[in-house]
Amino acid sequence: YKMAGDSRFPDVDTDGSEKSEEMEIVVNVGGVRQVFYGDNLNQYPETRLAELVNCLSGGYDSIFSLCDDYDPGKREFYFDRDPDAFKCIIDVYYFGEIHMKKGICPICFKNEMEFWKVDLKFLDDCCKAHLSEKKEELEEIARRVQLILDDLGVDASESRWKKCQKCIWKFLEKPESSYPARVIAVLSFLFILISSVVMCVGTIPDLQVVDAEGNRMEHPTLDSIETACIGWFTMEYVLRLISSPNKLHFAFSFMNIVDVLAILPFYVSLTLTHLGAKLMELSNVQQAVQALRIMRIARIFKLARHSSGLQTLTYALKRSFKELGLLLMYLAVGIFVFSALGYTMEQSHPETLFKSIPQSFWWAIITMTTVGYGDIYPKTTLGKLNAAISFLCGVIAIALPIHPIINNFVRYYNKQRVLETAAKHELELMELNSAEGKATGSRSELEDLSREGKEGPFYSSRIKVSHSDTFIHLLSEEKHHRTRLQSCK
Description:
- The chain is mostly helical and about 500 residues long.
- The chain folds into 3 domains: about 25-145, 2-Layer Sandwich (Potassium Channel Kv1.1, Chain A); about 165-305, Four Helix Bundle (Hemerythrin (Met), subunit A); about 310-430, Helix Hairpins (Orthogonal Bundle).
- Helix content is about 60%, strand content about 5%.
- The chain contains 18 helices and 7 strands.
- Strand 2 (about 25-30) and strand 3 (about 30-35) form a beta hairpin.
- The radius of gyration is 35 Å and the shape is flat.
- The two termini are about 30 Å apart.
């Protein structure tokens, strides 16, 4: 394209003798005037600019269906769109592909491409990846807003049991919903800590008591505290299971499986203690009980339910499987190589500690991870040189993938905070808009919106936010137009 000076449309004969390929059109997008030629635009006849070439013969109705304004004196088409995005989009007519410039909102750029009727397949792969990431973020924000609005909504057609079930679920699963729910969350957190402390303190010999058969057992007081904690965990799990909207999904959720593993050993060991002695030897019962009591350590993972930091760490590790795989691969190769070399080099020494290559694996592991217990060590000069090289390679192998893993954690943590803030911002905009629409109060309006939202895939089309560039199209079925001159936040 080129900047327009005093260019004018050539006179078009009424019989259409001039071919559209020889025409030039002047387009003014956001105050920037540019000239295009029909032979370039007609390469993609489905686009809006290509349709402008043939719209003059259709009259003003055809013209104004394609542009915002038209000056017949200057023969100039006007568009109230983003000129920066337009400069990127028109590259398709000259290069066959489109790249987004840095600083342009991907969602707004996608909307611009839809307006100019340019297919997304012309967008370069690197830009598509950025667009997909932003779409996932908007879907996550929409999901969070929907969950909050569902909590605010009260369906009059629901039975009393359904309403009670929903209240119990909010009370136990969503501490931010009310002050009593926050108190329950704090109590649950304290019970987890108390139970974990009791489990540790109960292993101190000075605090244990001896039964009639001479076996050491936990102090009765600690046992009573343990029973009270298990009773709380059991009641909490049963109430959450009863009030769960999807019980199958609830039962197979990872954190709920952890809850079962934290509760189940107590009841199994109690059953074996009272009934198992009649079915098997007493020693076997005691061994089974001790093995089950060790499983109580699973309750410490219950802290992840109340800690956003632990949840973020879990999700970040899931996103870092590739880096963790590289770390394990580096270590596995190094362990195999250096253990084999260590075994070979140490065979010449009469008092060698390297009896076999599999036994040397242990030495290679503690050496490459720079632990060095000293239970197995080389005694020859070549063996010591091999050990020095092994722990240097171990430091390098561990250090290389650590930085990407840390970056994944920081990126995911910051992203979750941004999404949470964006969801709250959308709710504030909805509340402000509903307050302007109805003087009866924003809360009742949100409840009406949440009830109507159940009829559609996300929300009713009545939900309208302000003219903010954080507007989520997933929250409304109607097209929400903004001026293209607004900047993207």
